[in-house]
Amino acid sequence: MGGDDIYSASKGCAELVTHAYRKSFGMNVATARAGNIIGGGDWSEGRLVPDCIRALRAGNNVTLRHPDAIRPWQHVLDAVWGYLLLGSALLRDADSSEYAEAWNFGPSVEVPVTELVGLLGVPWITEEGTFPESPCLRLDSDKARVQLGWAPRLNPLPMVDWTLEWYAADKDGHDATTDQIARYVELLRG
After folding, report:
1. How much is the pTM?
2. DSSP codes of every residue in 86-131
3. How far apart are the C-alpha atoms of 135 and 131, rounded to whole Å?
4. What is the CA radius of gyration of the chain?
5. What is the pLDDT of residue 2?
6. pLDDT tens digit string along 145-160?
7. Lowest pLDDT segment from 24-28, 30-34, 129-133, 147-151
8. Which residue segments constitute the domains of the chain, with CATH numbers given?
9. Going by DSSP bridges, is the β-strand pair 111-112/70-71 parallel, antiparallel, or unpaired?
10. Average pLDDT of 111-126?
């Protein structure tokens, strides 16, 4: 827990506060962390995929602050499925503290920034970032896999395909969200 950069340290602080509430007040509360989320609907400035989509649409290069950084990229639906499983377990066993812990929901494989940008098909340039970032972020999701039966369904290539599909539909004035949720549910059933 913790970390040398502000982002990582903030996650550690949140865990300490939640742990204190669990112990001090007997609260059965869990925390859940996902990897670096991608998927349709994110238009935030300074986030890799939305910046890449804007660059693609404008015919520009995307600027990468830390191109060699390794991140636990995952599709939003994989993270949401993990959160729903955890929430269900907490409700089912509301009088038990078995699930009132910290949980990670991350991908099976971490991918460098340049590999993700390459899968998105965006040319890039480098501009050194002024904000310090960890060169490698990883999540150990073994507990979620074993105790909740969770595992990501969308590995890097399908994850990127679904993301690009969503943004293409959006550009054409359509919302692919409902269709993608239905397809994801079919993956879970399959």
Report:
1. 0.92
2. HHHHHHHTTT--TT-SEEEE--SS-EEHHHHHHHHT--EEE---SS
3. 12
4. 18
5. 61
6. 999 999 999 999 999 9
7. 129-133
8. 32-189 (3.90.25.10)
9. antiparallel
10. 96
